[in-house]
Amino acid sequence: xxxxxxxxxxxxxxxxxxxxxxxxxxxxxxxxxxxxxxxxxxxxxxxxxxxxxxxxxxxxxxxxxxxxxxxxxxxxxxxxxxxxx
Length: 85
Prior knowledge:
Distance between the termini: 26 Å
Number of helices: 2
Number of domains: 2
Keywords: Cell membrane, Membrane, Transmembrane, Transmembrane helix
Organism: Escherichia coli
Membrane topology: Multi-pass membrane protein
Mean pLDDT: 87
Order of helices and strands: HEEEEH
Radius of gyration: 19 Å
Helix content: 10-25%
Pfam families: DcuC (PF03606)
Number of strands: 4
InterPro entries: C4_dicarb_anaerob_car-like
Structural class: alpha+beta
Strand content: 15-25%
Largest sheet: 2 strands, antiparallel
């Protein structure tokens, strides 16, 4: 049986590889009102029919690819998490 950290490592590798293949998408949200004990409450929920793939100026799909290591103020790389803590 593999160690738990080995499983987590391979899941992290697979999800970071997916960022090179799967484009960035976005859902819109909407506010829903409902009644609880006679009070009207609102809640923000995702509109399931509003998904769209984000595109750049050229109309091509946008990707936020995870790098192995990064420096500076960029998004952290995959190996920055275990090494920086």
